[in-house]
């Protein structure tokens, strides 16, 4: 059985299926891509299935079927869309301008690599933020990863780590020259660039070769490295004797530190060692045995008075209720209330909830635990493939020289309407953050730096502090 994700039309028999885990490696699909990017991408597309009607025929598009190992296996589709610049509504690339590549000559084509999710299937491929993955590569080999949404971002089958592995294999195999991204990766509410920066001195994306390129709000590489080092070297002894820790929500910090200190075999002295111990602890624990739900065995238990079919139906209803929580922990009462809409027999629900902990139902593992703070029983879903294949592999970035197929007209990606930026934070260029321009001097600044909140609308007229002072100094001008 194969679940069709990302495309609703019937596929032709005999169309080739590639393994998700190996797609992009040598031999999958081609033996080797040893030429510049603009030639390698053409070689890759020869293995794709043309999709003449997917985007209304306005843009050439190819698809690749990728199979994710599971029970049952899942088929997803990787789409490659070719965008011709001469017919594009947006000739310039603002991503290049933000990263500092605005001086690059405009190329003839851009190639979009899209892994659509179920809710984005059939929608605008090139302008949607809910895709599992969306990357764009210029034909000169420079590109941008626009988004990668794993389990936290709504993916039902693929973790963010595995999506990044796929993107890394594509970039490495096709001989991409340089690739940028905006690091906003989070785990729950934690910013991974901060957590991994403290633990390892590099962001979460560092395992795929990404490094600090251009900071927002005037942050330079030197100031970034200095700040990270200061936080990493923070002695744990200061956390244990800080007066601010007397607050109720932080009073347990010294106890938590001592618990981790007893677990590790090496003494911990600073915050970097503590964070690294926390992140690596899960990988040192023995893997949990995967137990599949055996409805016939459960129905033979003395406490069970329901048929295997009814037990299975109740289990699937509970899993569907947990899916709506997007892989977050939900209290037993909340799960029970949500399932009662479809299952009226509360005795059946109570029995299944009791039997469901750490068992596989369909493609998901149902986890159960007691919240240490509230002492309430909670449930959560984990993807089976994610649990079974959390094996980290070292990814290598390959940078090679490529010949840029630039447009004949002397035009650059940044365009000819460069903003003059002079912000209080030190920024002297467009970094992609929200900005506002002064209506008198036409100097641009970050909205955050002039005191505007993220949700506040930009006023119709704005004066910077300098122009405002000049106008008040010479009221006759007003």
Description of the structure:
28% of the residues lie in helices and 18% in strands. It contains 14 helices and 19 strands. The model is unreliable at 1-11 and 385-410 (pLDDT under 50). A hairpin with a 3-residue loop joins β7 and β8 (142-148). By secondary structure, it is an alpha/beta fold. Strands 1, 2, 3, 4, 5, 6, 7, 8 and 9 form a nine-stranded mixed β-sheet that branches. A five-stranded mixed β-sheet has the order 12-14-15-16-13. The radius of gyration is 27 Å and the shape is globular.
Tell me briefly what this model is.
With 478 residues, the chain is α/β, with parallel strands linked by helices. It has 14 helices and 19 strands.
Total domains, how many?
A: 4
Note the overall shape: globular
- What is the beta-strand fraction? 15-25%
Number of DSSP-assigned strands: 19
Describe the biggest sheet?
A: 9 strands, mixed
Mean pLDDT: 80
What class do helices, strands and sheet pairing give? alpha/beta
Poorly predicted spans = 1-11, 385-410
- Gyration radius, to the nearest Å? 27 Å
What's the total helix number?
A: 14
Fraction of residues in H or I helices: 25-40%
What is the end-to-end distance?
74 Å
């Amino acid at each position: 059985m194969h679940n069709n994700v990302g495309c609703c039309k019937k596929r032709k028999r005999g169309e080739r299926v590639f393994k998700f885990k190996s797609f992009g490696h040598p031999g999958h699909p081609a033996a080797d891509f040893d030429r510049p990017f603009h030639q390698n991408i053409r070689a890759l597309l020869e293995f794709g299935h043309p999709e003449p009607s997917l985007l209304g025929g306005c843009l050439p598009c190819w698809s690749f079927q990728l199979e994710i190992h599971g029970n049952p296996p899942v088929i997803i589709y990787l789409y490659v869309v070719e965008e011709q610049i001469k017919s594009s509504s947006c000739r310039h690339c603002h991503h290049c301008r933000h990263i500092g590549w605005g001086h690059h000559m405009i190329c003839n084509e851009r190639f979009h690599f899209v892994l659509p999710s179920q809710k984005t299937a059939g929608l605008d491929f090139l302008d949607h933020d809910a895709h599992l993955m969306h990357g764009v590569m210029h034909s000169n080999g420079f590109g941008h990863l626009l988004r990668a949404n794993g389990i936290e971002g709504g993916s039902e089958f693929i973790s963010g780590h595995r999506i990044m592995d796929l993107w890394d294999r594509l970039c490495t195999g096709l001989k991409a020259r340089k690739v940028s991204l905006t690091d906003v990766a989070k785990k729950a509410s934690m910013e991974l660039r901060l957590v991994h920066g403290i633990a390892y001195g590099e962001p979460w994306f560092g395992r795929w070769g990404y490094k600090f390129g251009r900071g927002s709000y005037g942050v330079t590489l030197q100031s970034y490295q200095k700040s990270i080092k200061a936080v990493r070297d923070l002695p744990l002894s200061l956390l244990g004797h800080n007066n601010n820790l007397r607050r109720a929500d932080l009073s347990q910090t010294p106890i938590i530190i001592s618990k981790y200190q007893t677990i590790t075999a090496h003494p911990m002295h600073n915050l970097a060692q503590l964070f690294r111990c926390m992140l690596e602890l899960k990988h040192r624990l023995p893997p949990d045995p995967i137990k599949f739900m055996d409805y016939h065995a459960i129905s033979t238990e003395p406490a069970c008075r329901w048929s295997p079919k009814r037990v299975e139906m109740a289990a699937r209803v509970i899993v569907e209720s947990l899916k709506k929580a997007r892989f977050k922990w939900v209290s037993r009462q909340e799960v029970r209330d949500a399932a009662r809409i479809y299952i009226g027999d509360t005795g059946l629900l109570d029995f299944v909830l009791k039997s469901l902990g750490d068992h596989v139902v369909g493609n998901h593992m149902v986890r159960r635990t007691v919240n240490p703070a509230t002492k309430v029983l909670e449930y959560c879903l984990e993807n089976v493939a994610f649990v079974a294949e959390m094996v980290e592999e070292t990814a290598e970035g390959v940078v090679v020289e490529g010949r840029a197929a630039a447009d004949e007209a002397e035009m650059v990606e940044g365009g000819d309407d460069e903003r003059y930026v002079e912000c209080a934070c030190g920024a002297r260029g467009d970094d992609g953050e929200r900005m506002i321009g002064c209506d008198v001097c036409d100097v641009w600044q970050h909205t955050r730096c002039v005191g505007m909140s993220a949700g506040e609308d930009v006023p119709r007229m704005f004066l910077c502090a300098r122009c405002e002072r000049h106008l008040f100094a010479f009221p006759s001008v007003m």
